[in-house]
């Protein structure tokens, strides 16, 4: 499993763009999952970094989490409203692991409350997904061209220029 911490070390440029855009949108991202009929589904999600991991946690009983329970593959894209992508954007893809650790869940809920005031302390979570990152990419505008940074496990980041 490639944790967020490991990913950020192996792919600092891509992780930096992702973290910056994630923060700039109030943590909003778009999560792509696969529906039971095989078609893709796009859903809003506010993933969180905690204890070196990227967590995909949210409202219980939603279709996006049923999708992940059935097929753990995902793509996560930073929310972008600027068609010129002046601030950049990034996406990650991977698989999730449902972590059943009530003590971890409560530490996470406590940290969430301390950071945002949103109180989930004492709640039980249907699904608590850790992201195993298996790839990532970022797009940045550099003068008259785009720089697309791509990362795959076991390889250094590589940059492709598009003019």
CATH T-level topology: Pnp Oxidase, Chain A
Could you say how many structural domains there are in total? Answer: 1
Mean pLDDT: 95
Q: pLDDT under 50 segments (min length 5)?
A: none
**Major β-sheet profile:** 9 strands, antiparallel
Tally of DSSP β-strands: 9
Q: What is the radius of gyration? A: 16 Å
Distance between the termini: 35 Å
Level-1 CATH class name: Mainly Beta
Instruction: Give the helix proportion (percent range).
Output: 25-40%
N-to-C series of helices and strands: HHEEEEHEEHEEE
CATH superfamily: Electron Transport, Fmn-binding Protein, Chain A
Give the amount of beta strand, in percent: 35-45%
Structure description:
This protein has 163 residues and is of the alpha+beta class. It has a single domain (4-162), classed as Roll (Pnp Oxidase, Chain A). Helices cover 26% and strands 37% of the residues. Strands 1, 2, 3, 4, 5, 6, 7, 8 and 9 form a nine-stranded antiparallel β-sheet that branches. Helix 1 (4-10) packs across helix 2 (12-24). The N and C termini lie far apart (35 Å). This is Pyridoxamine 5-phosphate oxidase. One of its GO terms (cellular component) is cytosol. Keywords: Oxidoreductase.
């Amino acid at each position: 499993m490639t944790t967020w911490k490991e990913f950020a070390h192996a792919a600092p440029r891509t992780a930096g763009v992702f973290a910056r855009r994630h923060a700039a949108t109030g943590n909003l991202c778009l999560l792509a999952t696969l529906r039971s009929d095989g078609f893709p589904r796009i859903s809003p999600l506010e993933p969180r970094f905690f204890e070196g991991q990227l967590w995909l946690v949210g409202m219980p009983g939603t279709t996006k989490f049923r999708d992940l329970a059935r097929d753990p593959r995902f793509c996560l894209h930073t929310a972008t409203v600027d068609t010129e992508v002046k601030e950049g954007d990034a996406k990650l893809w991977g698989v999730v692991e449902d972590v059943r650790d009530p003590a971890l869940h409560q530490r996470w809920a406590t940290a969430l409350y301390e950071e945002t005031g949103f109180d989930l302390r004492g709640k039980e979570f249907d699904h608590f997904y850790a992201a195993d990152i298996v790839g990532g990419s970022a797009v940045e505008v550099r003068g008259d061209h785009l720089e697309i940074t791509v990362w795959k496990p076991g390889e250094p980041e590589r940059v492709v220029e598009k003019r």
